[in-house]
């Protein structure tokens, strides 16, 4: 799309100069497209930056080569002669006075306004645009205003549109079906809301039984988000409205677990103590990044019904549950997670079961802002894994990179900065080649590979 076309679209949306402080989604997207065309990093520009760019933009330097006059339905053609009669859409006034061009407007200037351009980004958008055009053409316009008839027409066309959209969704969004689970307890059946990780059911069942679970998985595999979802389910299962959710990152001192007495003699409790005493789910994130000596303070609390804290002996609540999240198995650093510590065997023994949680690619597709880009990320991840290259490509790359693609950032730039960042150029090149090459990745982004697969079927 040319700069002049984008500028004309912006001019139809915004005043010049623009005095607004906040843009609508359409205005923001249009100005970002303009910024990209001008060679700017539009994805990082705020509304204020975009407005400043627009106010300093010289529209006169970017007019179309053959600008269309603003017709008013009175016989304007593409030339400069103005007719005086009513326009008939040919550039010739009805009284016989000829204009110099051949306009395409009809009636009261229809056709004289620039037609909005739309370039479908994927097969679904293309078919949806075609559906809307066909539905629009079916509506017959009449001079008289019969509100009942108009309402009937709207209802009829709405049914067609909804039916068509439903068909498209089934065709193009088949890989984005939310993962639905059902959890059975001794007293009830629970169906969590929304989409969940494929491993959530077995982790949840272990927690309901009273087990203390360790989840081991790569960065960005959804461990923390799963814990938040399970907290809500446990609160419903235990029928405890004030069910606490506590969380801690890596710990380095015992008081981070046990709490401490301040200088005035008042006890400052930790979130672990609050969950232990009042009933709650405690998430110990990055446990393998903690000081092993600090974790020894956990051992008695996890094993016994009572525990000794600075505030005194505390009875463990029957609904207290705990999850520990780690990138390793507590055996120390590995090639990918070099900052991890070896955990005390007595601490590790408190956690049963230890469950591996890998990336759930169906869940990744369901939460991404750009499904086709996520497929590109998954192709690069599989290539990296097959080559045994030490590099993390997590769903965070899909989410952040997909947002950048939607903002119009260059594809190669997104790959280098969001997916393969930190790798040398030769390693990036080898991963891309292993995944099929840059052309295949671009075809995947544009949905071409999916269309070819459909045609081959």
Give an account of the 3D structure.
- This protein has four domains: 3-62, no CATH class; 123-172; 190-357, P-loop containing nucleotide triphosphate hydrolases (Rossmann fold); 368-456, no CATH class.
- It is built from 18 helices and eleven strands.
- The protein has helices at residues 3-13, 25-37, 47-55, 123-138, 147-172, 200-209, 223-238, 255-258, 271-278, 292-303, 345-349, 361-367, 371-386, 395-406, 411-419, 425-434, 438-446, 448-456, and strands at 183-184, 189-190, 213-217, 244-248, 260-261, 267-268, 280-284, 306-309, 312-315, 321-326, 354-357.
- It has a five-stranded parallel beta sheet, with helices on both faces. It has a two-stranded antiparallel ribbon with strand order 1-2.
- Strand 5 and strand 6 form a beta hairpin.
């Amino acid at each position: 799309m040319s700069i002049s076309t984008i500028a004309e679209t912006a001019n139809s949306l915004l005043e010049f100069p623009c005095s607004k402080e906040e843009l609508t989604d359409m205005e923001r997207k249009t100005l970002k497209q303009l910024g990209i065309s001008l060679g700017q990093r539009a994805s990082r520009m705020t509304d204020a930056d975009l407005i400043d760019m627009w106010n300093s933009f010289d529209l006169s330097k970017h007019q179309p080569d053959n600008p269309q006059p603003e017709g008013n339905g009175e016989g304007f053609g593409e030339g400069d002669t103005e007719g005086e009669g009513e326009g008939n859409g040919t550039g010739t006034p009805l009284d016989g006075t000829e204009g110099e061009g051949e306009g395409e407007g009809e009636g009261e200037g229809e056709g004289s306004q620039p037609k909005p351009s739309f370039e479908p980004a994927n097969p679904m958008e293309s078919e949806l645009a075609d559906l809307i055009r066909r539905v629009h053409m079916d509506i017959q316009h009449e001079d008289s205003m019969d509100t009942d008839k108009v309402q009937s027409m709207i209802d009829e066309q709405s049914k067609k549109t909804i039916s068509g959209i439903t068909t498209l969704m089934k065709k193009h969004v088949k890989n984005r079906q939310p993962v639905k689970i059902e959890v059975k307890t001794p007293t009830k059946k629970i169906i969590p809301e929304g989409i969940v990780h494929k491993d959530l059911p077995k982790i949840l069942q272990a927690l309901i039984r009273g087990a203390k679970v360790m989840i081991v998985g790569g960065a960005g595999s959804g461990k923390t988000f799963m814990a938040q979802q399970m907290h809500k389910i446990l609160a419903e299962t235990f029928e405890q409205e004030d069910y606490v959710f506590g969380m801690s990152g890596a710990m380095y001192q015992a008081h981070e677990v046990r709490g401490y007495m301040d200088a005035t003699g008042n006890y400052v409790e930790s979130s672990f103590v609050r969950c232990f005493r009042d009933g709650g789910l405690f998430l110990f994130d990055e446990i393998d990044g903690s000081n092993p000596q600090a974790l020894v303070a956990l051992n008695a609390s996890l094993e016994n019904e009572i525990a000794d804290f600075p505030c005194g002996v505390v009875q463990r609540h029957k609904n207290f549950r705990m999850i520990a999240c780690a990138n390793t198995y507590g055996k120390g650093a590995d090639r990918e997670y070099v900052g991890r510590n070896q955990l005390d065997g007595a601490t590790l023994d408190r956690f049963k079961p230890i469950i591996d949680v890998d990336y759930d690619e169906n869940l990744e597709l369901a939460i991404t802002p750009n499904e086709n880009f996520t497929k590109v990320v998954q192709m690069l991840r599989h290539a990296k894994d097959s080559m045994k290259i030490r590099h993390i490509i997590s769903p965070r790359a899909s989410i952040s990179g997909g947002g950048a693609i939607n903002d119009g950032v260059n594809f190669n730039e997104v790959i280098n900065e969001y997916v393969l960042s930190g790798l040398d150029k030769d390693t990036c090149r080898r991963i891309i080649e292993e995944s099929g090459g840059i052309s295949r990745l671009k075809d995947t982004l544009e949905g071409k590979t999916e269309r070819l697969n459909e045609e081959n079927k």
